Amino acid sequence: MSVGSAGLEGFALSIGLILALGPQNVFVLRQGLLRSHVFAVCLVCSLADASLIAAGVLGMGSVLSGIEGAAFWIAVAAAVFLTGYGLLRIRSAMNPVGMSTEGEGESELGPTIGAALAFTFLNPHVYVDTFLLIGGTSSRYLGDDRLAFGIGAAIASFVFFFSLGYGARSLSGVLNKPESWRFIDLGIACIMFVIAGAILLPHL
After folding, report:
1. How many domains does the chain fold into?
2. pLDDT number for residue 49
3. Rounded to whole angstroms, how far apart are CA atoms 28 and 38?
């Protein structure tokens, strides 16, 4: 697989995971709507996610890639997880809920940054995504390919958070509508199924 393909897979996997409705996304969206420290919040969330992705790719990915025979079982586990995740998104699409952005944002920079870090590092799901899923999937690659995979995954965080923060005014009307989340969840499910297939294919 080429470096470019590895990077695109990392980007697609990361963006698919990060699109899921969560407190971090709601916080960034709310700050964008309030136009309160938008750049700082987007940068902090992006860098925090990138650091976790790097730890997953360079740490977990490196360890797993050194274990003989681990690649097959990692591929199976990742494909099962992604398929299950996709099915959950389909289930969510059957009864969609809008993203609520009610409430006040922090007015001071310090507390706002603290909240952004808390929403990132105190969310157990982020460690499953970055360490186990992204890090584990990266173990399929070596050298430049693994680096490209990690960079692609990290870029996805920057693209997503800055798009969400600065596009909040225009996105809020869409994201508050449950019907919009039906299509978003179905789109995420499709991405997860495609990546699951791509991960399994070399082992079939």
Report:
1. 1
2. 94
3. 8
- Report whether pLDDT(99) > 70: no
Count of other CB atoms within 10 angstroms of residue 172: 17
Do residues 97 and 24 make contact, with C-beta atoms less than 8 angstroms apart? no
Separation of alpha carbons 173 and 154, rounded Å: 27
Predicted confidence band of residue 107 (pLDDT cuts 50, 70, 90): low
In this structure, the chain runs to a length of: 204
- Look up residue 22 and give its DSSP letter: -
pTM of structure: 0.74
Structural domain including 34 reads: 3-203
Q: Centre a 10 Å sphere on the Cβ of residue 132 and count the other Cβ atoms it contains.
A: 17
Q: 32 CB contacts (<8 Å, ≥6 apart)?
A: 38, 164, 165, 166, 167, 168, 169
Token match 């995504």: residue?
129
C-beta of residue 77 within 8 angstroms of C-beta of residue 67 = no
